[in-house]
């Protein structure tokens, strides 16, 4: 008798993608912003619905986590502190929300971006995981400039810099603009365990860990739409 082999379906995990929090963005920025109130309602829903916000290092234990979800913010804008404060207010004895901030090395301490002191503070809180978004935010697939991009600087040195600042492991990177190619991915594999794209969809643990999909949340995303995006 031939015993059928059942393929491991893996575990689905929504990875939410945010950039900035603010109430009055320009129309061309709607895709990058979410209002403070909407973000608060979304995070309250995750708590009420039994989701467990985790960081990337916890994926290896995902089978023991109830409704895991990862909350990410790209670029390291200063207004991300609002998200940190909302998550901190939701924390209690039974709920420990977490989020990942992908930081651009060259923009730390610049106007409208998180300062070194802020990064150290939120990293030490146990709420925010500081991860990499390259050193200068290049477009990796730009054919004309691809040969001028210093991949060691953009991929390796940002990891070492952030680890020196926070004293914690940096194991994940977000591709700027969601752009990458085989050369970039192979370089990333030398130093990281995970990489996220801007491709829409729910990530799965059986997927390529260096091309993980994310769920974009934008200015126009209603709470009902938010629920449908992640409750699949």
Number of domains: 1
CATH topology: TIM Barrel
* Largest beta-sheet details: 8 strands, parallel
CATH class: Alpha Beta
Subcellular location: Secreted
GO molecular function: hydrolase activity, acting on carbon-nitrogen (but not peptide) bonds
Organism: Heyndrickxia shackletonii
Protein name: NodB homology domain-containing protein
Task: Provide a brief overview of the structure.
One of its GO terms (cellular component) is extracellular region. With 232 residues, the chain is α/β, with parallel strands linked by helices.
Features of the shown structure:
single chain, 232 residues, TIM Barrel, eight-stranded parallel beta sheet, two-stranded antiparallel sheet, 6 helices, globular, hydrolase activity, acting on carbon-nitrogen (but not peptide) bonds
């Amino acid at each position: 008798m031939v015993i059928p082999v059942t393929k491991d379906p893996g575990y689905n995990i929504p990875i939410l993608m945010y950039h900035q929090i603010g109430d009055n963005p320009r129309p061309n920025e709607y895709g990058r912003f979410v209002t403070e109130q909407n973000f608060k309602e979304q995070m309250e829903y995750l708590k009420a619905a039994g989701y467990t916000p985790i960081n990337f290092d916890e994926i290896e234990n995902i089978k023991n986590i109830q409704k895991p979800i990862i909350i990410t913010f790209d670029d390291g804008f200063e207004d991300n502190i609002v998200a940190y404060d909302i998550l901190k207010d939701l924390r209690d004895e039974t709920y420990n929300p977490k989020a990942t901030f992908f930081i651009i090395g060259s923009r730390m301490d610049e106007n409208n971006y998180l300062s070194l002191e802020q990064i150290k503070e939120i990293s030490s809180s146990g709420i925010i995981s500081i991860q990499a978004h390259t050193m200068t935010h290049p477009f990796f697939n730009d054919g004309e400039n691809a040969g001028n991009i210093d991949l060691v600087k953009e991929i390796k040195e940002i990891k070492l810099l952030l680890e020196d600042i926070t004293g914690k492991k940096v194991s994940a990177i977000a591709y700027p603009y969601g752009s990458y190619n085989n050369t970039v991915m192979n370089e990333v594999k030398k130093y990281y365990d995970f990489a996220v794209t801007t491709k829409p969809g729910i990530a799965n643990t059986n997927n390529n860990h260096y091309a993980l999909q994310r769920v974009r949340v934008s200015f126009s995303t209603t709470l009902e739409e938010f629920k449908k995006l992640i409750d699949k």
